[in-house]
C-alpha cells in the first residue's frame, strides 16, 4: 500500500489555484524528487500532503499511523524564543537523551545538543532539522528545498547524508528541489511540476523529456551529469520518450 | 476562617500574584508569536464588555470575558488571511477602547468608576474577587501546561506542527481562550490599559537569562511576582496608584535585566 496518495488533487492558495488534477503516490522506501520552477506549486504539494492545506478538490490519503519527518524550507525561530538543540528535538514529543544523541549523530552533528538554535550556522541548522525529522524513525521523510542557503559543497554533503540516512532507516524520501543537478540522479523517480504534473519517470528519462526541457532549457541537462552516481552510469538504456536533440537552440 | 485575608494589602498581593502566574507563561507565547497588539486589542475590547455588563446589570467579569473572547476570536479569524495585521489590530484595539469609553460615559452613575477599570483597583479586591482571580489563573495555567508541547511546536512553524500531528489552528484557539480569561481576571488588578504590559514585560525581562522556553516562563513568573510585591509596597510608600506602580516595577526589572545581560556580554 502507498504511504501517501493524492487523487485528482487541486489546491488553491490566496484565491489562486496552485495545483490542478495532481495524481501522485509514494511507496515505502522510494526516493522521489519533485522539480519545478518557482511558483510551480512544489511547496504547496508538500503542505497539502502533511495536511496543512485543505484541497479544493480531490483528496489526500495517508496510511493510518504514518510517521512523517518534515524538513522545512527554512525555519525562522523568533530571537525572543530561547531554544537549545536538545529542547528542540523534544518537540512535540519528549525524546530521551539517547534518542536525541543518536539522531544528531546520524544527521552528522553529534556535538550540538547544548547549543542555542539561534547560534547555529546554516548548515548546522539544516542538519538539526534533519535530526528532528528522523528522530521518530519516520516511514516518510519530506524535504522542502532543504538545502536553500547552503553552498554547493554544503548541499552536496547534505544530500549524501540524506542518502546514508535513507540507507540506514529504509524510509521513503520525498524531496522538493530546484537544484536539479544535485538531486535528480539520487532519485528513483522524478516528477516535473508546473501547476500540474508535466512529466515523471526515472531521472534520465525526465531530464530528456521535451516537457522538462521546455521548463528548464537544455543547460541543466549538462549540469545533471555533475552529480550522477558512478554506479548508475547507463547512458544507452533511456526512456522511451521520443525526444529530439534539436532543442539546443 | 480565612481571617488573614482581612488585610487589604495581603489580598492585593495575592490578587497580583494570581494574575502574574497566569500572565507569565501566556505572555511568553504573546512575545514569541509577536502577538503584543493582539493582547492589546483583546484587553481594550474588555472595557466595552464592562460597559455592556453595567448597562445590562450583569456580572462585569462575564461581560468583560465575553467581549474579550469575541474580540480575540475575531482577530484570530482575520489573522493569516493576507491583511496587514498590525494595521488591522491597531484599528481594532483602539476603536474597541474608544467605543468602550463612549459607552461607559452614557452610564452616568459609573462615570467615577472609569479609572478603576482602566487602571485597576487592586487595593479594593475582596475575598470573592480573589477567589475568581485564582480560579481563572489556575484554569489558564492548567490549559497552557496541558498544551505546552503542542503550543511550542505550533509556535515554531505551522507545517512542522502539521507533520507532527499537531493542529496549529487548535493551538491558536487555546491561546485565544487563555488570553480572554487572563484579560477578564486582570481588569481588577491592573486595568484594561496595562494588561498587555503584564503579559509582555516579565517575559521580556526574563529572556536574557533563559536557555529554554521553560526557564523563560518560570523566570517571567518570578519577575512578575517580584514586580507585584515591589509595586504594591511602592504604591503604599509613595501613595501612587497601585496597578501602574506594579507595571513600573516590572519595567524597572526589565531595564535591570537587560543591563545585567549587557554587563555579562561585555565581561571577558
Descriptive key words:
A: 249 residues; alpha/beta; Rossmann fold; three-stranded antiparallel β-sheet; 31% helix; disordered C terminus; B: 268 residues; mainly alpha
Topology overview:
The complex is a heterodimer of chains A (249) and B (268).
Chain A: E1 4-13, E2 16-26, E3 31-35, H1 42-50, E4 57-62, E5 68-71, H2 85-89, H3 97-107, H4 122-134, E6 140-144, H5 152-169, E7 172-177, H6 180-183, E8 189-193, E9 197-201, H7 203-207, H8 210-216, H9 219-224
Parallel strand pairs in A: 3-7, 3-8, 5-6, 6-7
Antiparallel strand pairs in A: 1-2, 1-4, 8-9
Helix pairs in contact in A: 3-4, 4-5
Chain B: H1 8-32, H2 36-56, H3 60-78, H4 85-106, H5 114-119, H6 127-156, H7 158-163, H8 168-190, H9 195-206, H10 213-238, H11 242-266
Can you put this structure into words, describing what you see?
- The complex is a heterodimer of chains A (249) and B (268).
- Chain A is an alpha/beta fold and 249 residues long.
- Chain A has a domain at 1-67 and 139-146 and 172-238: Rossmann fold (3-Layer(aba) Sandwich).
- Chain A has helices spanning 42-50, 85-89, 97-107, 122-134, 152-169, 180-183, 203-207, 210-216, 219-224, and strands spanning 4-13, 16-26, 31-35, 57-62, 68-71, 140-144, 172-177, 189-193, 197-201.
- In chain A, the strands form 2 sheets. A 6-stranded mixed beta sheet of chain A has the order 5-6-7-3-8-9. In chain A, strands 2-1-4 form a 3-stranded antiparallel beta sheet, with helices on one face.
- In chain A, β6 (140-144), α5 (152-169) and β7 form a beta-alpha-beta unit.
- The model of chain A is unreliable at 220-249 (pLDDT under 50).
- Chain B has 268 residues and is an all-alpha fold.
- Chain B contains 11 helices and no strands.
- Chain B has helices at residues 8-32, 36-56, 60-78, 85-106, 114-119, 127-156, 158-163, 168-190, 195-206, 213-238, 242-266.
- The radius of gyration of chain B is 18 Å and the shape is globular.
- At the A-B interface, α1 and β5 of A face α6, α7 and α10 of B.
Amino acid at each position: 500500500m502507498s504511504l501517501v496518495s493524492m487523487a485528482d488533487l487541486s489546491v488553491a492558495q490566496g484565491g489562486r489555484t496552485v495545483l490542478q488534477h495532481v495524481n501522485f503516490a509514494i511507496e515505502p522506501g522510494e526516493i522521489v524528487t519533485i522539480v519545478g520552477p518557482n511558483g510551480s506549486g512544489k511547496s504547496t504539494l508538500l503542505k497539502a500532503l502533511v495536511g496543512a492545506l485543505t484541497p479544493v478538490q480531490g483528496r489526500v490519503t495517508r496510511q493510518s499511523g504514518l510517521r512523517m519527518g518534515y524538513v522545512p524550507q527554512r525555519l525562522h525561530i523568533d530571537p525572543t524564543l530561547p531554544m537549545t538543540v536538545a529542547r528542540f528535538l523534544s518537540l512535540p514529543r519528549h525524546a530521551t537523551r539517547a534518542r536525541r544523541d543518536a539522531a544528531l549523530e546520524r544527521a552528522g552533528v553529534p556535538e550540538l545538543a547544548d547549543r542555542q538554535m539561534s547560534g547555529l550556522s546554516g548548515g548546522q541548522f539544516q542538519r538539526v532539522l534533519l535530526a528532528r525529522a528522523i528522530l521518530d524513525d519516520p516511514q516518510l521523510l519530506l524535504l522542502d528545498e532543504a538545502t536553500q542557503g547552503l553552498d554547493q559543497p554544503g548541499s552536496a554533503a547534505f544530500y549524501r547524508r540524506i542518502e546514508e540516512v535513507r540507507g540506514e532507516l529504509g524510509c521513503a524520501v520525498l524531496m522538493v528541489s530546484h537544484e536539479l543537478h544535485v538531486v535528480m540522479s539520487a532519485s528513483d523517480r522524478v516528477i516535473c511540476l508546473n501547476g500540474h504534473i508535466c512529466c515523471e519517470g526515472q531521472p534520465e528519462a525526465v531530464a530528456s523529456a521535451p516537457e522538462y526541457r521546455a521548463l528548464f532549457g537544455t543547460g541543466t541537462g549538462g549540469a545533471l551529469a555533475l552529480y550522477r552516481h558512478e554506479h548508475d552510469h547507463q547512458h544507452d538504456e533511456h526512456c522511451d520518450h521520443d525526444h529530439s536533440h534539436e532543442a539546443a537552440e | 476562617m480565612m481571617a488573614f485575608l482581612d488585610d487589604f494589602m495581603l489580598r492585593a498581593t495575592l490578587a497580583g500574584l494570581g494574575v502574574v502566574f497566569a500572565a507569565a507563561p501566556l505572555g511568553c507565547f504573546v512575545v514569541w508569536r509577536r502577538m503584543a497588539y493582539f493582547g492589546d486589542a483583546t484587553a481594550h475590547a474588555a472595557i466595552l464588555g464592562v460597559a455592556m455588563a453595567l448597562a445590562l446589570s450583569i456580572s462585569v467579569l462575564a461581560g468583560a470575558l465575553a467581549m474579550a473572547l469575541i474580540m480575540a476570536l475575531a482577530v484570530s479569524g482575520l489573522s493569516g488571511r493576507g491583511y496587514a495585521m498590525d494595521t488591522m489590530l491597531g484599528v481594532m484595539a483602539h476603536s474597541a477602547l474608544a467605543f468602550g469609553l463612549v459607552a461607559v460615559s452614557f452610564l452616568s452613575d459609573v462615570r467615577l468608576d472609569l479609572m478603576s477599570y482602566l487602571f485597576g483597583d487592586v487595593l479594593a479586591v475582596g475575598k470573592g474577587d480573589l477567589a475568581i482571580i485564582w480560579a481563572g489563573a489556575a484554569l489558564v495555567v492548567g490549559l497552557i501546561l496541558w498544551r505546552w508541547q503542542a503550543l511550542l511546536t505550533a509556535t515554531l512553524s505551522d507545517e512542522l506542527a502539521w507533520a507532527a500531528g499537531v493542529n496549529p489552528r487548535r493551538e491558536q484557539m487555546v491561546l485565544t481562550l487563555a488570553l480572554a480569561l487572563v484579560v477578564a481576571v486582570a481588569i481588577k488588578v491592573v486595568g484594561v490599559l496595562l494588561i498587555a504590559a503584564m503579559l509582555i514585560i516579565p517575559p521580556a525581562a526574563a529572556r536574557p537569562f533563559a536557555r529554554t522556553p521553560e526557564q523563560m516562563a518560570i523566570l517571567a513568573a518570578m519577575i512578575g511576582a517580584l514586580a507585584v510585591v515591589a509595586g504594591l509596597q511602592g504604591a503604599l510608600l509613595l501613595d501612587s496608584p497601585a496597578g501602574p506602580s506594579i507595571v513600573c516595577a516590572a519595567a524597572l526589572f526589565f531595564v535591570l535585566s537587560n543591563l545585567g545581560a549587557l554587563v555579562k556580554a561585555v565581561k571577558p
